[in-house]
Here is the input.
Amino acid sequence: MSTGLVMEQERGCGRAEGCAAPAVVSSATGSATEPACPVCAGRRVERVSAQPRDYEYHVQPDRDLGVFVCDSCGSRFAFPRPRATDLVAFYPPHYHAYNEDHGAVARMLVALRGRARARTYLKLCASRPVRLFDVGSGDCRHFVELQRYGAFDCGGVELNPAMAEAARARGFPVTTGTLEELDVAAVSERYDIVTMYQLVEHVVDPVRLFAQAWRLLKPGGHVLGQLPCVNSWEQRLFGRYWAGYHYPRHLQMVSRLGLRTALVNSGFADVRVGGALHLQAGLSLQNVLVGRLHCQARMRYGKIPLYSMLLCAAGPFCLLEYLCGRAGMMNFRACRPKQPVQRGDTMREPGQ
Here is the structure.
C-alpha cells in the first residue's frame, strides 16, 4: 500500500522475515505466553510493521507495547497486556478528557452530542427516572448535561481517583476503579442503560467488560457505546498516525466483526453496529504534523493551537467515509434479553 500521503504497509511482516514476536512475558498474567486477540480470542496474529507512538502526550510505557493484528476478526491490540494498575500512568494530568476547554468547535459538538444522546436514552426507556451507569464517567459533567433534558438517575465507575472524587463532589455515586474489577452484586440488574463511549478500546479485558455490563442491566436493558473502527478508510490512509491508535491508551483497536462477536458471545441480543459521523481525522492530521512533519507547536491538553482548524479541514473526508460505510468511528447498541439465551439443553449467562 504505497499510495496516499501517509499510507503505510502495516500488515504483519511474516515469520519468514524474522519479525514475528517470540514468546514474551505478559504483564497481565505474569507468565510466558503467545499473544491472543482480546476481542475474539483468536490466536492467529501478526505484529504490524508500522508501530504507532504517542504523538499527543509523549507517554512511553515502561514496557514497549507492540501492536498485533488478529487474522480471525481483523481487530488490532497491544501486547504484552498491561495490568489494570498500570493504566493510570498512561493518562497524564493534562489529558484532554480531564479538562473542559478544547476550543469553540469542540464545545459546540459536545453540546450537540449530549442533547442527541439524552433523546436516545429517553426513547429507549419507558420508566422514569432512567437509571444509567457510565463506564469511565470522569468527573460526571456530562451527567449534569443529561439532566437538563429529562429525569436521569446516574452512577458510574472511573479509573482516575481525582476524577472519581470530583464526580462524587457533584453528588453522583461513582466508584474508583474499573468495571472489570468492580463487585456488581449489590447493583445487579439495577440499570436501564450502561454506556461506554470511547471506553472499550481502553480496557485490559473487553470480554469481561461486556459480561459485567450484562450483569448491571435489567432484563431488556441496553448497552450503548462508541469507539474507533479499525477497518476504516481513515486507518488505511493515516497508518501509524491514525488517531484511533491513541497509543498507549488504546489497548485494542476493534473491527466491526470483532465488536459484534464479543457482544454476542457475552450474551447480548439485537446487536447493532454502525458507522458514526465523527471528526477523529482531525486528530490524525495533527499526528501527521507532530509525528511525521515534526511540528513544534506548543500543545494544550494534547492539542496544537490549530486543532479547531484541523477539525474543520477533516470534515469533508469524515462525511465521505461515513456515507460510504467506512467511517473511522462506530456506534454500537445491544440489549440484555428479557429471558436467558437458550443454547441446547442449557440456559447460558455470561461467564458460563
